[in-house]
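Weekly modeling sync, notes
Attendees: S.R. (lead), two postdocs, one rotation student

Agenda item 3: backlog of single-chain predictions. S.R. asked that every request posted to the team notebook include the full sequence so nobody has to chase files. The rotation student volunteered to paste the first one in as an example of the format we agreed on. Action items at the bottom.

Example entry:
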Amino acid sequence: MTVSDTKERLLDSAEAAFAEQGFAGASLRAITRRARANLAAVHYHFGSKEALFGAVFERRFAAINRERLRRLDALEREAGEVPIALESLVRAFIEPACSVMAGDEQGARFLRLSGRMFSEPGAHWLPVRRFMEPIRERFVAAFAASLPELALEGVYWRLHFVLGAMCHALAAGPLLTLFSDGACDGEDRGRLSLI
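Predicted structure, as returned to the notebook:
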């Protein structure tokens, strides 16, 4: 068993525990027991429970954010000096999350964790903010350029609602199936890119 195996098991165990019990309810002892590791391993690899929480999000959002930035770079090159079309910006922001979180057990577990994170604010959010900064800066600037009639505050509010709608659509698929009386398959996250 390698050091990287232990680290991955800790991340998997923490993701599951935080998704099931929330940040406050998930104990490091339960996480390490589930990972077949000891408390010292958490401190060695992450330093603290808060840092472990941040690492769980960073692991998933690293791929999402790379793809978001890749798409935004391509849109900026294509647009040149002209503001990017709003729909293209929204797609560049939403579609990478849909593709990474759709379809598998890890994606479903991370969706549950994300839902908990948004409903349980606290200091454990601080590590998560660190790796979202480049995304926030780049996308806010692009949205502001595409929506020149809005004050910056309005751009932030709209991006906040886009993020909320995306998280809801990803996490609450069964509600759409129920609400549409079966006309829509809310579990088919691939359909989100068609909207």
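Discussion: group reviewed the output briefly. The longest helix spans residues 49-79.
Action items: rotation student to repeat for the remaining queue; S.R. to check formatting next week.
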